[in-house]
Amino acid sequence: MKPSAQLTDEQLMELIIQRDKLAFSFLYDRYSGKLMGYFMKMLWNNREQSEDLLQELFLKIARQPELFDVSRSFKAWVYTVANNLCKMEYRKAGRKGVSISLDYAPELADKSAGITEKLDKKAFTTKLKEVLQGIDEPHKSTFMLRYFEDLSLKEISVIHNCSEGTVKSRLFYTLRKIASRLPQFQHI
C-alpha cells in the first residue's frame, strides 16, 4: 500500500511501523500544527518548550512506532502521549497546576469580529485564564482537550484512563465553576 493523504491515522501508523518515511511525513503534517497549539496552550505559551516536546513526541513515534496499537484510535493515543509529556514538564517545573495560554484558541481570536466583540472576548479570555489557574489538572486538562482540541468524550476518557462518565462529570463541574466565577459573561 502506497501512503497517501486519504489513509486513516491508523493505516499510516501501520506503514510507519514498517518504516515508511512518507507515511510518517503525512502523519506529521496532519498533527504537528494541532499538537503544537496544544503544547503552547498547556505550557505557559513557551514556544521553545512546546517545540521541544513536539519534537520529542514525533521522535518517539519515529523510533518506537510499535508502541502504538493499530487497533486503537491514533488521535486518542497521541494526545495521551502529549498530555503525559506536559505532566512531566509540570513536575520538572515544580508546578502543580497548569498555566494555560489561550492565545492559540482560534475561536477566541476571530479577526472579523467587531471591536466591542473583540474586547468582550479579550476580557473573557483573560478572566477564563484566571479561573482555569484555580482548577486542578485533571479537570483543566479535560476542559482543554474538549473545548480547545475538540476531542470526543471517548478520546478524552482514553487519554485520562477513566470512564466517559468521569469525563462528563469533570466537564460538568468545570463548566459550573467557570460559570459561577464569570457570571458577567453569560450573555456571550
Q: How are the secondary structure elements laid out?
A:
Elements: H1 9-17, H2 21-42, H3 47-63, H4 74-93, H5 115-133, H6 137-147, H7 153-160, H8 164-181
Helix pairs in contact: 1-2, 2-3, 4-7, 6-8, 7-8
Task: Describe the sheet with the most strands.
Answer: none
Q: Which segments are poorly predicted (pLDDT under 50) over 5 or more consecutive residues?
A: 104-113
| CATH structural fold name of the largest domain | Rna Polymerase Sigma Factor, Chain: A
DSSP summary: helix tally: 8
Number of domains: 2
The termini sit apart by 49 Å
Order of helices and strands: HHHHHHHH
Explain this structure.
The chain has 188 residues and is mostly helical. The protein folds into two domains: 1-95, Orthogonal Bundle (Rna Polymerase Sigma Factor, Chain: A), CATH 1.10.1740; 98-188, Winged helix-like DNA-binding domain superfamily/Winged helix DNA-binding domain (Arc Repressor Mutant, subunit A, Orthogonal Bundle), CATH 1.10.10.10. It is built from eight helices and no strands. The protein has helices at residues 9-17, 21-42, 47-63, 74-93, 115-133, 137-147, 153-160, 164-181. The longest helix is centred in the first third of the chain and has 22 residues, at 21-42. The termini are far apart.
Task: List key phrases describing it.
about 190 residues, mainly alpha, Rna Polymerase Sigma Factor, Chain: A, Arc Repressor Mutant, subunit A
